[in-house]
Amino acid sequence: MSLAGMTVNELCDKCKESTQQFLNRLPHDDQYCFELLRRALAEQQQDALYNVYEIYLPLAIYWAETHPRFLQTRYPADEFATIGMSNFCLALGGEKFQHFDGLPSIMKFLKACVSSEIALHLRKISRIDPILSEDIADFQNQDDSISERIWQRISELLPDSVDRILVDCVFRQDLKPAEITSLYGQYWSSAREVSVALQRLRRTLRRDPMLTELLRL
Amino acid sequence: MDECRYPPALTDDQLELLLDGEVDAAMQAHLSQCPFCSARLAQMQNFEQALKVNLHRWNCPTPQELSEYHIGLLLPERAVILTKHLESCRRCRDELAEVERFLEDDSRLPPPRGLKKPQQPRMRGYELIARLLPMPPSLALRGRRGPTRNPLQAEVDDITIFLSLDETTRGTTLLKGQIASPDIDQWSGALIELWQQGSLQAMLIVNENGMFRHEGFQPGYPADLRINAATGKLVAIKDVRFPESPSSEDE
Known about the structure:
The structure holds two protein chains of two kinds. The longest helix of chain A has 25 residues, at 103-127. The model of chain A has no long low-confidence stretch (mean pLDDT 91). Chain A has helices spanning 8-23, 31-42, 46-65, 70-73, 77-91, 103-127, 144-157, 161-172, 177-183, 191-206, 209-214. By secondary structure, chain A is mostly helical. Chain B is α+β, with helices and mostly antiparallel strands. Chain B has helices at 12-19, 25-33, 35-55, 63-71, 76-88, 90-104; strands at 128-134, 142-143, 146-147, 152-156, 159-167, 173-180, 191-196, 199-205, 211-215, 223-228, 234-240, 247-248. In chain B, strands 1, 4, 5, 6, 7, 8, 9, 10, 11 and 12 form a ten-stranded mixed β-sheet that branches. In chain B, strands 2-3 form a two-stranded antiparallel sheet. In chain B, strand 7 (191-196) and strand 8 form a beta hairpin. The relative contact order of chain B is 0.10. Classes of the chains: A mainly alpha, B alpha+beta. At the A-B interface, helix 3, helix 5, helix 6, helix 7 and helix 8 of A face helix 1, helix 3, helix 4, helix 6 and strand 8 of B.
């Protein structure tokens, strides 16, 4: 029977079989899974989409659990796998599916989506002010337009681009002095030089009432 | 207290050293007994923390975008912007390298029979929770034969979600829903997870008018819906219970 003539249920059965063979390290035929994914993502068929979740969500959970930074998240793997699956399906909807010519590259992208969700969570955690909040929800509505205005003001206060590099390294990227010297040894050759330069910049920034207001202090 | 209790007060330079984590027993002792100087240090720490919270990775591409960059899915003009950003952002370079390593590491294939059954996610803090309200039947979704009964309405921010049930001639229950929002385009193509009894029951796709439907709904069990928009917005409706048995849509 041609792939086009197969029902979603038939494709699903074949894809499950093929996936099990893959897990058993046996030769397997990817074409049924690829067609099921195509119907789910490119053609947006709901029943195919449900079957894609049923087959690949457990795999996505496995990838989340084996991510090198998963333990840092202190969240269950299902959380990252489910949102990673959604991002995967949303990203490959419609024409974008055509970028993929086979199952291995699609699976690679799903794995990347799971990894991205873990990285995003860890970014949010590191942004949380441990003094003011322990709840990640407080940063759900973080307004980047305020951040942009703050950065604009800093740029006005620090016309020297080297000064701005240091503020960017410390406050935006949260780099340590040793990391800064290794990246920008031409400007600061030691951690001590970083500290001295930073002290000067902090004083300039602290003295500005507009910046203080933007920071809601 | 507007002056140092044990003059001379610590200088700004000394406070800066403390801010940088320098440990100096004499300065620490001064701070422990002088409210004036310790308040000045606290003010500096607040300023420092506020800068970090507000600026942290504020203009970085999302990790998802970095993954799409790595796979080659981004539009060329966006890829050029990311390439430029990566030149000056150590954190994004690290994340990109991490995803590259993770994708290349096939050494740990999944165990043949060890994959877990998915559990319903409880993403504390990530999702907006829509509040369920009873809705007058006159405002409910309309089926072929007039307004359906047992409608529900859920709201969060400027988003309203209408839900109702119909019974089909096949004896199955049809869940129908519609998302109303000033920015309805945001919700077109959104994916909805339907969870009941801790298991994923269905995946629904929101159409361009904000509508969705699922035949085979089990009205006897409370349901949770999680709506994922392509913009990253995530709305959950929890513990949906319909008050009556379904009306008949196509008798």
